[in-house]
Amino acid sequence: MSQQDKKPDIQEDYYAPGNSVKGYLHSLLVAHGRSTKGKVHVRDAIDVKRTMTIVGLCLLPAILFGIYNIGLQAQIAVASGLEASSVWQLIPFNAIFGGMTEQTGFIGLVIYGLSLYAPIYITALLVSLFWEMVFAKVRGQELHEGFFVTALLFTLILPVSTPLWLVAMGITFGVIMAKEVFGGMGYNFLNPALAGLAFIYFAYPSQVTAVTQLVAVDGFSGATTLMQTAAGKMSFADYAWYEAFTDPNWWNAFFGFTVGAIGETSTLALLIGGGFLILTRLADWRIVAGVLAGMIATATLFNLIGSSKNELFAMPWTWHLVTGGFAIALMFMATDPVTTSYTRKGKVAYGLLIGFMTVLIRVVNPKMPEGIMLAILFANLWAPIFDYLVAKANIKRRLKRNGL
Predict the structure, then answer these.
(1) Of 20, 151, 245, 271, most Cβ neighbours within 10 A?
(2) 82 and 201, same structural domain?
(3) Could you tell me if 200 and 238 lie in one domain?
(4) Quick check: keyword Translocase in the entry (predicted)?
């Protein structure tokens, strides 16, 4: 049989990336049609699909609690006299449960939260999948599972009442401008989820930073702990860091029964998921330790300096830990293996910079009390520099050791 008469492997060609939508989905959900076969190849037990699956499972505690807390905070607001939201996402819930009331049970609260979170995540997932397929088609590459986690992380750091069109714009900016234009997965130097959040944060601040977006009820006017402290409504004067462990308000913040973005309120849930991520070595403990050390040292320094005009100077590190998006950024954003430093010493320096910048932004700029997201984006730019300095130091040490 001549080379021209030889029939191609139909299944392999059909499922090759760039040939069809079904081929993309097959490579994404099952396996890539051109995976190598045989015994001559060295295999690892982990790949992109397994990595992203593990990260998604580690996020599950925060997701489940966040869904419940959406309903819980709405119920607390309704009990205080506010009117329950009547957005279209809640039409099925209102039809089944007759609206949010003080008597709504656990199941009702979960369904209430799921009714609001599911459209946000589906929007982010479909938009990111669309752009991934567009760029995979142009480059003739297979789809990578990274967009699942990017969409998850992006939606978990959003307020529950974020408009869906804004969700689509944010994830579009993050995927295209922070990832795909630099070559796609593995080539980006900025965290796509944080880049998308930064874009809508500065382009549409009234839609993202307004306190009315934090709870799914009409007329909500509460505030997060960071906002209240920045406004002088909470005081930490003469408050030692260890007193937090006997403070019921701190424990509420630690468990997550507070107002905040969808998946960032429960420090406990995030530490559980993040701890498993460290045990599987998908997250490096050096980065986590560096962020914590940098945050504790900087917060303690501001406590010692003090200020009669800014209450955030007195906020102890124990409260920085459980407020804002610190926990989710500590365990899942800062440890992103693509955008961090690769050397061991570089990882420590990278983490220290994030911890330092987080407290600095929170304290010195009260108009922007949440600082860790911007701190990570800033540290992303420094990650290659840290690796370069570590490599130069190693070369210099070896040359000196060998008398060169």
Answers:
(1) 151
(2) yes
(3) no
(4) yes
Average pLDDT over residues 197-206: 89
Number of domains in the chain: 2
Is residue 113 a contact partner of residue 69, using CB atoms and an 8 Å limit?
Answer: yes
Region of residue 298 (left: phi > 0; alpha: psi -120 to 50; beta: else): alpha
pTM: 0.87
Q: Which residues, in sequence order, are CB contacts of 78 under 8 Å at separation 6+?
A: 84, 100, 101, 102, 217
Residue 57 and residue 187 in one domain: yes
The tokens for 222 are: 């509460």
Residue 166 has pLDDT above 80, yes or no: yes
Would residue 271 count as lying in a domain? yes
Sign of CA dihedral 35, 40, 46, 47: negative
pLDDT in tens, 303-355: 999 888 889 999 999 999 999 899 999 999 999 989 999 999 999 999 999 99
96, 143 Cβ separation under 8 angstroms:
no
238 and 171 within one domain: no
Report the SS3 class of residue 173.
helix
The C-alpha atoms of residue 245 and residue 249 are separated, in whole angstroms, by 10
Q: What is the pLDDT of residue 10?
A: 39
Length of the chain: 404
Domain that holds residue 315: 232-401
Q: Does residue 135 sit in the same domain as residue 199?
A: yes
Tens of pLDDT, residues 134-146: 998 888 877 777 8
User: Is the same domain home to 322 and 357?
Assistant: yes
User: In terms of Cα–Cα distance, which of 146, 142, 140 is closest to 33?
Assistant: 142
pLDDT digits (tens, 9 = 90+) for 208-266: 777 778 888 777 766 788 888 888 888 898 889 999 999 999 999 999 999 989 999 99
Interior angle at CA 181, CA 178 and CA 184, nearest 5: 80
Question: CA 139, 143, 148: angle at the middle one, nearest 5?
Answer: 135
Q: Where are the alpha helices (DSSP H) in 15-47?
A: 21-29
Buried b (16+ CB within 10 A) or exposed e, 118-150: ebbbebbbebbbebbbebbeeeebbbbbbbbbb
272 with 361, same domain: the answer is: yes
Instruction: Copy the structure tokens of residue 325.
Output: 């998006």
Q: What number of other Cβ atoms are within 10 A of residue 385's Cβ?
A: 13
Same domain, 334 and 239: yes
Determine the average pLDDT of the residues in 36-63.
78
The token pair at 257 is 């029964």
What is the b/e burial string over 43-77, where b = at least 16 CB atoms within 10 angstroms of the residue's CB? eeeeeebebbebbbebbebbbbbbbbbbbbbbbbb
Tokens in use for 180?
A: 């795909």
